[in-house]
Amino acid sequence: MKNSEILDRFFKLEKKYNLFESNTNGGIKWWDIVRYDVYIQILYLTVRKPAPKLTRIKNNRFNVFTLLYQDIKYLLKMRNRRVRNFFYTYPRGVDENGFSVDLISQDCLSIIKSQSFVVDGLQTGSTKECSYNNTALLIFKKLFKLTAKKNILNADINLILKNEFKIDFDFDKKINELLGNYNADRLYYNKLLHFYKPEIVFFLATGGEKGLIASAKHLDIKTAELQHGQTNRYHMYYSYPEGVVYNKNLTIPDTFLSFSEHWHTINYPVKNKISIGNSLFKNMNMNDTPRSGQSLLVISNGTFAPDLIPLIKSLATKLPDIPVVFKLHPQQKGHEREEAKQVFLGLPNVEIICTEKTTPELLNEASAVIAIQSTVVYEALQLGVKVFLYAKQDFESHDDIFINPNVYVIDEAKDIVDNVTRPFVKTDQGVFFKGFNKQKFIDFLNDSHSSSN
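== UDP-N-acetylglucosamine 2-epimerase domain-containing protein ==
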């Protein structure tokens, strides 16, 4: 089954069974809370391959007592500060000094940090400036699970999805886990937000912020999401069937702060879409000077690695003089990185990179990108870098750029070898990314704060 077919079927069943209006026995409109995770699970049961099970080394910095101590210090620091903004960050990157950093949030935080309650959404405990690790939420969720009752859905979701997609999976159990987390988050953030009374909640979406959004809506606090990745019609967090509009039943933000207007075309039914750009992409413009030499950048993660690794091993053998950078996901550190190095042992032209360099830095050194599915392919095209899309799993999620003459959909290493020296063809493409527009963000702040007074 193709990714495009799965998408069409998913939208149809949402309408057919009126899922957005479905309730639990507790009166919760449950579908919008779980649909993203349900869709991802469907992909793993159809077009995606399960991520390999790697041995993980537990990091001592995640020790709950250390994080709790840091949180107490942060709360004491914030006790006399006016909080106008609640900022939920996602620090996946690492700066030159080894501190965890959310590169996407830096532009906005630099303007409003002094009046913001900042949350480390990954509980890294290693941000440069003190932030809140939400340790109390971790503890609360464990206690909540002990007393939480099962949510009874008013639809037989297992039967619906089995009939539509010919798959056998206990979605009811998964949905109850998601709703349990949602209910715990909602209760927790109701207390936290009510205490600090911010005017705006900022966040980066990872799929698990529905409880935070619901709490903010309940307290009449505005919500704004910062774009951090690809947001086209195949990303179910952002993609909704035509006819679905912004309403009280949807746990989505009021405002979507995007990289550029290119990402405003799909039906993500927020109230406002504002293109503010981001400094991470400030040099995201094509250089008129042709790139010298050949080098390949591979964008991987745990899901796509099983397909990409054999392809790159074959390619590195066929092109021994061309350097290949195999870029891991930022969260693939430690043991996973060492395992990747072992996989490519004996191939001196393959280098493993995790967070040592940012993706824009790597793109500036590359002549072509190899990927299955990633936001990086859009970054590459804007910088004048060719893209090889490996026709595996859900590569179809990039069908919006299939007609671009610089995108090559490939089936094997030979397809890359045959086209690796082809020059980049300049086209009249839309801009995927813009530099940070500080004034636009300030205007948004002023409008939001004034309407909250």
